[in-house]
């Protein structure tokens, strides 16, 4: 699914030199590379502040803590997503409200959010899934209207641009904004398989709010801005200097990687768009797509059989996510489920992600496409 060794081999000399500089310098915690990376990511995303941390889940938890929510407050999360957004909400004594997603983009929509609001709803965590932005302008308009905080989970969509609509509200602003910079806090992960991945764990938060940035920094550092003076309860969440040095190198190649992913996606889409029983990913007009995953919908209840057949042909695939959040045992009695969540249930039964990385050859892709076509044309 990801060729991490091949990725490293291409930039091995730069990576090795960066790691050796850290090892020789001896500043393994909060070394200068961490600040350098934060500044580089600020420049890249356009965010006013970037606060590195230990991983993407920590980023979500710290963001929720900084917003000052109280026990029992509700936070909207998508039903079709990884567990982290709902998990962090639950761990802080808040109530996750699980909301259905759009059947084509797999993302939260303002319409579904609006239908799920209660008097205790205080925040929304939007997840820009699989490399494409949620439609943020109507979500932000609605959030402003009823004073909701918005956290963007940008772990799969770093480098994605959202095009603002030409309305009076946005007149005079930049036409395009990067995901992670439109809500109150953007959170991302540098897990090795992410668009921008390190060689261990890592994460970051971004915000344009000066006061919020100060809170995020303090919470990530035991609630202190001055050593041994703890103004609030916090946690210990740091990006290692070694990982920051690696990310400083890899950030330079992030746009090239996105371009390569779009090339791979185009070949898949052209080869599979007319295959019966297959729905290829939709590209929204308001968002660029970096194809963190290339995810099909397989109809007719044939997803699992197709996955098994492809495995027999030496083709790896993955199902993200085989259980929607409302069916996870951990949330059985502790969440509010907003509606029947039929889309999330159907997606969990039908989605299948194909190999996606910059070193996939066209020949390999043609082989994958051929085997998918062979299986589906033989099935009754």
In short:
The protein is of the alpha/beta class. The protein has 13 helices and 15 strands. The longest helix has 19 residues, at 254-272.
What keywords describe this structure?
8-stranded mixed beta sheet, alpha/beta, single chain, 38% helix, globular
Account of the protein in words:
Helices cover 38% and strands 16% of the residues. The chain has 13 helices and 15 strands. β10 and β11 form a beta hairpin. α3 packs parallel to α9, α4 packs across α8 and α10 runs parallel beside α13. The longest helix has 19 residues.
> Which bin fits the share of residues in helices?
25-40%
Helix-strand pattern: HHHEHEHEHEHEEEEEHEEHHEEHEHEH
Number of DSSP strand runs: 15
Unreliable parts? none
Structure annotation, total helices: 13
Arrangement of strands in the largest sheet = 1-9-8-5-4-2-3-14
Question: What does the average pLDDT come to?
Answer: 95
Kindly, what is the distance between the CA atoms of the first and last residues, rounded to a whole number of angstroms? 29 Å
Classification by helices and strands: alpha/beta
Mind summarizing the main beta sheet?
8 strands, mixed
Q: Give the overall form.
A: globular
Report the β-strand fraction as a percent range. Answer: 15-25%
User: Could you tell me the radius of gyration in angstroms?
Assistant: 21 Å
Quaternary state of the chains = single chain
